[in-house]
């Protein structure tokens, strides 16, 4: 009988412990369900944020590559323009030196005259910041000189 009583006592004690544990878990169940719902909501929200941020990143990368292409294009145009202007400046320096030395005929027969003709042909009075009539007059005098109609001294005045 003692063994039976011990077993019965053990069963009662263990049953009581299990009832207390089950009761504790049942009390925590609503709290855990709420936390699970919050976590699911947070995961959904973060997933939407990731999608939005991914789209923004892709848009920014596209804009960056477009801007880079534009800068490269601008740089190439600047380099081309700069090279052309440097060539024109060197030609003008040689022309001025020839005029100062009084060798008008030699100047008109040199490649420098072709550079000057190119510069004159490219003059556009509409883009000038100075007086349009002055630019037009300078263009006319230089054209006349290059065609042999005036002396070099007229240009230096």
Report mean pLDDT, rounded to a whole number: 79
Largest sheet: none
Compute the number of helices. Answer: 5
The low-confidence parts are: none
How much of the sequence lies in strands comes to under 5%
Q: How does this model look, in words?
A:
The longest helix has 99 residues. It contains five helices and no strands. The protein is mainly alpha-helical and 157 residues long. The protein starts with a helix and ends with a helix. Helix 1 crosses helix 3 and helix 3 runs antiparallel to helix 4. The mean pLDDT is 79. It is rod-shaped, with a radius of gyration of 46 Å.
Quick rundown:
Helix content is 87%, strand content 0%. By secondary structure, it is mainly α. The radius of gyration is 46 Å and the shape is rod-shaped.
Keywords:
157 residues; mainly alpha; 5 helices
List the helices and strands and how they pair.
Elements: H1 2-100, H2 104-108, H3 111-122, H4 132-146, H5 152-156
